[in-house]
Amino acid sequence: MGGTRPGVAIVGLGLIARTHATAYRQLAGVVDLVRVCDVDRARAIEFAAEFGGIATFDLAEVIADPDVTVIDLILPHHLHLEASMAVLDAGKHLILEKPVAGTYAESEAICRRAEEAGVHFMVAENTRYAAAYVTVERLVREGAIGDIVHARTFLRSNEKAHLSQPGYWRTQYAMGGGLILDTGAHSFYLLKWLMGEIRELTAYSTKVFGLPNEIEDTAEVRGTTTAGALFSCGFTSVSEIPHSERLELYGTSGGILVDQMADPVVKVFRGDHDFAGEAIAGVPFGPDAWHPGGWHWESVIAEVTDFVTSLVDGRKPLIDPWDCAYAIKVIEAAYRSVASGASVRIAGE
Ligand SMILES: NC(=O)c1ccc[n+]([C@@H]2O[C@H](COP(=O)([O-])OP(=O)(O)OC[C@H]3O[C@@H](n4cnc5c(N)ncnc54)[C@H](O)[C@@H]3O)[C@@H](O)[C@H]2O)c1
């Protein structure tokens, strides 16, 4: 793969693809968007008209194009393994939307193959680039709250329309559906990044809305880390308040509250009389997650930018794909716990 200017193809042109395409547009001096691909022909043609690139309807055609050196896979989860392997076997660089894949075995296989292929590979886990979490990681590293002893995350969205659509991939486990898989990929990556590995967990899930599908719409996963801290992660896909995320960290000398719907987004509290807390500067308030300026949108732009600039500069991106694979290991344990009703040990497995 010669040339210094990467040629990108986006494969899978759903909602999040627009954010990726916007990032490539902003990086127009550095990369070319060569192809945009979707099995939905009308969608590919419309996307190409808006963002450029040749409208393509088949991944094989994308891979065969020598001008395409980077492939950005944004496909339903059950297609991640086969598509990733095809890209890696062709020696193309790969950016793959989270979750790595639907199972830990598949995730491991992708990470291994990427190492063998020696290409530039990143799992697009936007959590690593959300301004609030970047700030929290710095605060924790600087000792702002001492050692973390308890963490709580909450992720909420409203997927009722999707989840009521017969045949849509998110409504079936066999196609990669599942709230814990879809959203747990973010939270368990975050816990791994901030707190290390998990010792054991117990998970609960339910279907509050009885929509016509087999997927849980509400879940809670809790347990302990190998360092001895407690964690609890809540998830819902049927929220009647906006898509957003919260994080609470309790440490031995203080605590941090993050709420993407609050201004300021990040506050540090030191002691039980610290009613005001310290508002942490530098984290923009962007509650409209899916539009420019929104916390989620901007994290995806930063993620794609890191992938491209790390490729061009010859350095590793900030994300270690094995940490994203680890999140899938935790997710599998959570589903095993839901099925058995028992706690599942992860550490030492
Ligand atoms: N980082 C995030 O917060 C975030 C947000 C949304 C989606 N995602 C991830 O992006 C991926 C896609 O999710 P989505 O919400 O965009 O799904 P989507 O259903 O909106 O879009 C998927 C697109 O892929 C196309 N497609 C299906 N099979 C194809 C194939 N064989 N070749 C080419 N195109 C094909 C579909 O026609 C559709 O346009 C998932 O892995 C999801 O987890 C991540």
Account of the 3D structure:
This protein has helices at about 15-25, 40-50, 60-65, 80-90, 105-115, 130-140, 160-165, 180-195, 295-315, 320-340, and strands at about 5-10, 30-35, 55, 70-75, 95, 120-125, 150-155, 200-205, 220-225, 230-235, 245-250, 255-260, 265-270, 280, 345. Helix 4 packs parallel to helix 5 (about 105-115). The protein has a nine-stranded mixed sheet. A six-stranded parallel sheet has the order 3-2-1-4-5-6, sandwiched between helices. Strand 2, helix 2 (about 40-50) and strand 3 form a beta-alpha-beta unit. The chain is globular. Helices cover about 35% and strands about 25% of the residues. By secondary structure, it is α/β, with parallel strands linked by helices. The protein folds into two domains: about 5-125, Rossmann fold, CATH 3.40.50.720; about 130-300 and about 325-345, Dihydrodipicolinate Reductase, domain 2, CATH 3.30.360. The chain has ten helices and 15 strands. The mean pLDDT is about 95. It binds nicotinamide-adenine-dinucleotide.
